[in-house]
Design goal:
The chain has an eight-stranded parallel β-barrel, surrounded by seven helices. The chain is globular, with a radius of gyration of 17 Å. The termini are close together. 47% of the residues are buried. The protein is built from nine helices and eight strands. It has 266 residues and is an alpha/beta fold.
């Protein structure tokens, strides 16, 4: 498995500094938060996109994916959501990133079946654009659809190889789903896995890997037992928790912790 970290953990950090962090601490890649307050977002010019892609390539750091914020199950017209998806897909293509992350975002007051159908329709519509650009859309276990069982209600009907799943281990745990069950549901669709750690269900501020309650050992074990060799991406949510310790000083120990888990699982 290859290791990445999300730039959610280093809000506003420049692209050269992000690449330098990855190389200095032994990470193979980065997930770039695609938001206007960050250096990388869909408003970049073609020249800026080319420069960003060249910088990461020159540093030997892969751009794993873009952390987008499109909500595919949200109420409203399809057109704005599909346009947001297309912009993210084009940006990912231009940066050489294989994945774009999207959220469910369903309205809890609407019937579940209705929201699932909306999400499946939009993802199906965007799948051909994704295929043409060589990018895969990943629906994250998050908010209204936080478990693997939730996600397959959407991904099953889509049935397109360019639409898959991003397993955020915190949300499946918060949803009461065991890692073996999450993997069983998501395995046919799995793009990559977001790892993190927290103190409890009531305190989700980010902690160093291994310092909290999330079942990271079990998650790595089930992935290893099934021969999965994709990406593990550390999503340290510093952007939402300003008092959390700075991520750069935790990166080496976090890498060592994951390497140790992988060794034990092997």
């Amino acid at each position: 498995m290859k290791l990445a970290f999300s730039t959610l953990g280093v809000p506003g950090l420049s692209v050269p500094d992000v690449a330098a962090l990855a190389t200095a601490h032994g990470y193979h890649g980065v997930e770039l938060r695609a938001h206007p307050e960050e250096p990388v977002h869909p408003g970049l010019t073609p020249a800026e996109r080319a420069e960003t892609a060249a910088l990461f390539k020159g540093a030997g750091v892969e751009v794993l994916g873009l952390g987008g914020y499109a909500q595919v199950a949200a109420p409203g017209d399809d057109a704005p959501v599909l346009e947001e998806l297309r912009q993210l897909l084009q940006l990912a293509h231009d940066l050489g990133a294989p994945f774009v992350r999207v959220f469910p975002g369903a309205d809890p007051d609407r019937p579940r079946e209705e929201s699932d159908a909306v999400a499946a329709r939009r993802l199906g519509a965007a799948a051909e654009d994704a295929a043409a650009l060589g990018v895969r859309i990943l629906l994250e276990t998050h908010d209204s659809h936080r478990t693997g069982a939730d996600l397959i209600r959407v991904l099953g009907p889509v049935g397109h190889r360019q639409v898959g799943a991003l397993w955020d281990v915190m949300h499946t745990w918060l949803g009461g789903e065991q890692p073996t069950d999450s993997y069983a549901a998501l395995a046919p669709h799995l793009g990559y896995v977001q790892i993190k750690d927290i103190a409890s269900a009531d305190d989700t501020a980010p902690l160093p890997l291994g310092a909290g309650v999330l079942p990271l050992t079990e998650c790595v074990d089930v992935l290893s037992r099934h021969g999965w060799d994709g990406w593990l991406c550390w999503e340290y949510e510093k952007r939402w928790y300003e008092s959390a310790a700075p991520l750069p000083e935790l990166l080496s120990a976090g890498r060592d912790h994951v390497v140790r888990l992988l060794g034990e699982a092997a």
